[in-house]
C-alpha cells in the first residue's frame, strides 16, 4: 500500500469562523452536496483532508449508469442522470460527459437470465434498456463469431471523466460561493446541548448548524469516534488504462472477465467487476454478521487477507479533538494495484474486445471502495445528533449517483422534502430488526 501522507499541515486557505453547513469530504458526494447547497444560497464550507477527488471519485471507471442498479436506488439514479446533463452545461468546463450507452455482455446462459430478470424487474421505470441479439452484439463489437448469447443495453446511460468531473463541480461550487478547503481534515464534530454546533478541524473550529459527513471509507471511523456505528467496510479494486486504440462504438461494455470504457484520451479504462481485495480490520469482526450474505455471494472474486489497514488508520477507533486523527495520517489513500489481477484482466479484454488487440496498458491504480451490507448508500439525518447528516456507503456505484445524491442532500439539509422518496436509504435501517436486506430480498 502506498500512502501519500500528510503533505502539508498548512491549509490552502484561511479557515472561516462560521458557515451554515460544513460538508466533510471532497468526493463526488460531498462536492455535489456543496454545489447544490451553494446554488440554493446556503453558506457552505467543504473540508477535504487531502485533495478534491483524491480517493474513489477520481479512481473509478467513469460509468454513469442506470443499468443493473438495485431498484431501491434506481429512482435516485434516474434523477442523477438528469443532474449530470445539467451539470455538463452548468459547470462550464469539459467533464467528458458523453451519452454513449452501457452494454452488459451475456457470455453464459446464467448471464443472459440475470440480465433478462433485471430488465423485467425495472419495467415500471420505463427505461430505454433492452436485450440485444447475438448479431447486434457482434455488430457493435466488430466481431462475426457469435461469441455472445446477447447483451443488456441502455442507450441513455453515459460516462464522464472522473478526474475532471468532480474537481470541475467543486470549482463551480466555489464560483457560487462555497468555500472548498483542501488539506483540512475534520477531526470531530462539536456539540452544544446535544446538537451540532460546529466541527473541529486540524486547523481550528468552524461553527455551523449542520454537518454532512461524506467521507467515503473514512465515514465509519469518524462516526465510531463519536459513539455511532456504521456497518461499512473497505475493499480494494484495481484498474488500468491503455494507450489509444480504435473505437468501434460509443458504448461502455461490461463482461465477467473484463469491462471497458472509452476514454477521452483515445484509450480505454479496463477492469474486472468484483475483483476486489478485502483487508480484514477490527470493524470486519464487529460487522461480520451483517456482511455474511455479501461475502458468501462474492467470495470467489474477493481475496481476504489480514492487511496493513488492520493496524493503521482505518483500524483506529478513538482519538481526541486535540490529537492527530487518522484522516491526517493518510491524506490521500493510494493503494497498490493488484498487478496479477490486472495482467489477467488485460489478457481477457484483448480476447473479448477486438479493438484492444494492440492496446498497451500505460497506467495502473487502485481505489478503496466503501461498502454497506446491503450495497446501497446511507443518506440522511442521524437522529441521535440533530444537525448531523450522512451521505456515504455508495458501495462501488456512487460516481453516477453522486450528483442526484448531492441535490437530495441539499434539500434535506435545508429542511425541504426531497424530490424523491429516499426512506429506503435511511441510516436508521442498520439499527432496525430486518432493516438490512439484499437486493433480492427487497
Ligand atoms: C476502482 C473503482 C471503480 C469504480 N467505478 C465506478 C463507476 O464506473 N461508476 C460509479 O458510479 N461508481 C464507481 N465507483 C464508485 C465511486 O467511485 C464511489 O462510490 C464514489 O466516488 C464515492 O464518492 P464519495 O464522495 O462517497 O467518496 P470518496 O470519493 O472516497 O470521497 C471521500 C472524501 O472524503 C475525504 N475525507 C474523509 N474523511 C475526512 C475527514 N474527516 N476530513 C476531511 N476529509 C475527509 C477523503 O479524503 C475523500 O476525498 C468505483 C470505485 C472504484 C474505487
Automatic annotation (TrEMBL):
The identity of this protein, by name, is D-amino-acid oxidase
Organism, scientific name: Thalassobaculum fulvum
Top-rank taxon of the source lineage equals Bacteria
Residue span(s) of domain FAD dependent oxidoreductase = 20-412
Q: Note whether Oxidoreductase occurs among the keywords.
A: yes
Cellular component aspect of the GO annotation: cytoplasm; plasma membrane
Please name the PANTHER family in this protein's record.
Answer: D-AMINO ACID DEHYDROGENASE, SARCOSINE DEHYDROGENASE-RELATED
Keywords recorded for this protein, A-Z: Oxidoreductase
GO biological process terms, alphabetically, are:
D-alanine catabolic process
Instruction: Please give the Gene Ontology molecular function terms for this protein.
Output: D-amino-acid dehydrogenase activity
InterPro entries in alphabetical order: FAD-dep_OxRdtase (IPR006076), FAD/NAD-bd_sf (IPR036188)
Family recorded in the similarity comment: Belongs to the DadA oxidoreductase family.
